[in-house]
Automatic annotation (TrEMBL):
Cell inner membrane in keyword set: no
Source organism (scientific name): Variimorphobacter saccharofermentans
UniProtKB keywords: ATP-binding, Nucleotide-binding, Transport
UniProt name for this protein: ABC transporter ATP-binding protein
InterPro entries in the record: AAA+_ATPase, ABC_transporter-like_ATP-bd, ABC_transporter-like_CS, ABC_Transporter_VariousFunc, P-loop_NTPase
Gene3D superfamilies: P-loop containing nucleotide triphosphate hydrolases (3.40.50.300)
GO MF term set: ATP binding; ATP hydrolysis activity
Pfam families the record matches: ABC_tran
Residue span, ABC transporter domain: 2-233
Amino acid sequence: MLKITNFSKSYKSDKKAVDGLNLEVKSGDIFGFIGHNGAGKTTTIRAIAGVLDFEEGEITVDGVSIRKDPVTCKKKMAYIPDNPDLYEHLTGIGYLNFIGDIYEVKKFDRETLIEKYSDAFELTSNLGDTISSYSHGMKQKLAIIAALIHRPMLLILDEPFVGLDPKAAFTLKSIMSEMCKNGSAIFFSTHVLEVAEKLCNKIAIIKGGKLISVGTTAEVKGNHSLEDVFLELIDVQN
Ligand SMILES: Nc1ncnc2c1ncn2[C@@H]1O[C@H](COP(=O)(O)OP(=O)(O)OP(=O)(O)O)[C@@H](O)[C@H]1O
């Protein structure tokens, strides 16, 4: 579903933020992307989402190059950044309908999914309010609902659990599991290693722009906790 081949990105000419990254996320995978601050997670995620240009390597979504045909790729996926930038003057429902129009989601599907996910995130009674009146967590919930209403084959999330209350985090985890059971693929970054360990069937650890471990969660952590493995790998490679 998502294939990253020899992807590198430099912001300044002297140092690569991401260096020669190879990764494949298959249908049904919940793939956790972990690494220290500045490791290259957001850079990778933004390149996958088609919002960051890059010179080296190839990224394909369902076989389509994000560089050559970004529109086709974007129709197949949804991207939720760590700090979603929403149209503050719109109401919640106005925003969801705006996104529904862009992705040409049919009326019945749209109404059904908006109801389903707004109820799940307890946002239904706030949908008539303007987004500028929402808290940070409410904005995040709205961005998640907007991402889900066009049933993406690939969901890309940058630090999705930051700012969500425990119930909303539980709801999101349940939705992620349900999506992958239905054949979608999910790739997300997180610093919450307990969540990654429980939720993901695959894990990649990035350090200084390079992958230092990748595989099934069982392969990456062996008989240890993911936290122990992560801390040891980060230290050993210093
Ligand atoms: N717009 C930019 N201009 C210059 N350098 C950048 C820019 N964005 C990121 N970088 C650099 O690229 C490297 C990787 O940053 P990135 O944001 O991808 O890390 P991250 O793993 O997402 O970190 P965090 O966990 O703190 O969010 C860092 O050295 C960072 O300073």
